[in-house]
Automatic annotation (TrEMBL):
Keyword Ribosomal protein: yes
This protein's record includes keyword tRNA-binding: no
A GO term, aspect molecular function: structural constituent of ribosome
Superkingdom of the source species: Eukaryota
Protein name per Swiss-Prot or TrEMBL: Ribosomal protein L22
InterPro entries linked to this entry: Ribosomal_uL22 (IPR001063), Ribosomal_uL22_bac/org-type (IPR047867), Ribosomal_uL22_sf (IPR036394)
Length: 369
């Protein structure tokens, strides 16, 4: 059996959707006039699309119901078989897509969603009962969005009555919230105890954020470096999210948001102690730490290997720190209010004051007269 007979024998046993290689076509000059007949049955996946011969032609029905006429396998050449197989595959993919689009249902996106427009444009792909995207009833989500409608209506009525009584004028809390900024930042849990972290919280409370970072850099405490990283993150969050401390940054071209102030020489206004010594007043947008407190976290579990093969379990504590950042504008206002309150307290009792109402300075051991 020569090579040409081997190729013809392989082609005679080929399936309708299998095509010979290019080398086989070149070796067989009689392939164009050869009538191929399939000696093997169709695959189980292709039984539904088995052609039915009608007067020398095959009629194939797809899932969508469309019928396409094509020549029978007895009159097909190798290249025509390839075209038929590609056409059947394209029709099968098209039918699957059509079936997916028919089963497509609009999800729970609101009309203001970013992807709402894409769903509205595809209204013609599904049945009419599933295409009420723009006409959906908002009461279906009322239980999740408004679980206590009666309490909400009472609260709204109370707020309206309060606003009418005040004639639209904001109270003190509203004025402070509109004019002053603050930012609360809570850190992750450090592997330390509250007894060790509380002194660091007391140390940085009341200091400007730059000076607190500087103090943590040179602290001998092990957890001080983690506190320093958290302070830098809290400062950057306050600048980016709340717009705090922007005036001091814009005035100094060399200052950057992400730069560590302790890595370079601080300017006079960046360190509170230097500002007091050199007579620089703090800018009203400078950030300082108004409050700092610790947060008790979970307890871990670590093995403690002892003598004679014994193992004890240790439970080290985890603790976090939270800081409340405010601007110097808030501290100035609170200081003025405190002084005014003390003055009202003194003057309200009609007490006789033998000295002028000013601070006593330059006290010395000996008299000067």
């Amino acid at each position: 059996m020569n090579r040409q007979q081997i190729v013809l024998r392989r082609l005679s046993h080929a399936r309708p959707y299998q095509t010979p290689s290019a080398s086989a076509v070149e070796l067989c000059p009689l392939m164009s006039s050869l009538r191929l007949a399939s000696t093997r049955p169709f695959h189980s996946s292709s039984i539904r699309y088995a052609p039915t011969t009608v007067e020398g032609k095959a009629t194939t029905k797809s899932k969508s119901g469309k019928s396409s006429e094509m020549p029978t396998s007895a009159t097909l050449t190798a290249r025509e078989r390839l075209k038929v197989a590609r056409k059947r595959a394209a029709e099968r993919i098209k039918d699957e897509r059509a079936e997916q689009e028919r089963n497509f249902k609009l999800g729970g996106l609101s009309s203001s969603s970013l992807f709402g427009g894409d769903l509205i444009e595809r209204k013609d792909t599904g049945p009419k009962e599933d295409l009420s995207f723009a006409e959906r009833n908002p009461e279906h989500m009322a239980q999740a969005l408004n679980p206590r409608p009666t309490a909400r209506s009472r609260w709204q009525r109370k707020m309206v009555i309060r606003d009418v009584r005040r004639r639209g004028r904001p109270n003190k809390e509203m004025r402070i919230a509109r004019s002053e900024r603050n930012h609360v930042s809570r850190s992750h849990f450090f592997k330390t105890s509250m007894k060790k972290l509380a002194p660091l919280a007391r140390q940085i409370a009341g200091k400007p954020i730059e000076e607190a970072i500087l103090q943590m850099r040179f602290s001998k405490k092990k957890v001080a470096q983690e506190v320093r990283q958290h302070l830098m993150q809290a400062r950057n969050e306050a600048i980016v999210m709340k717009g705090m401390g922007l005036q001091s940054v814009t005035e100094n071209e060399d200052a950057t948001v992400g730069q560590d102030p302790s890595a370079t020489r601080p300017l006079p206004h960046q360190t509170h102690s230097k500002a007091l010594k050199k007579g620089h007043t703090a800018d009203e947008t400078d950030i300082y730490i108004a409050q700092a407190w610790t947060n008790r976290g979970p307890y871990g579990s670590e093995p403690d290997y002892r003598a004679r093969g014994r193992v004890f379990m240790m439970h080290p504590p985890y603790t976090g720190i939270s800081v409340l950042l405010k601007e110097e504008k808030t501290r100035t206002r609170e200081k003025a209010e405190k002084e005014a309150k003390a003055l009202r307290k003194r003057m309200g009792k009609n007490m006789w004051v033998h000295l002028p109402d000013r601070r006593v300075t330059t006290q010395r051991q000996h008299v000067l007269w």
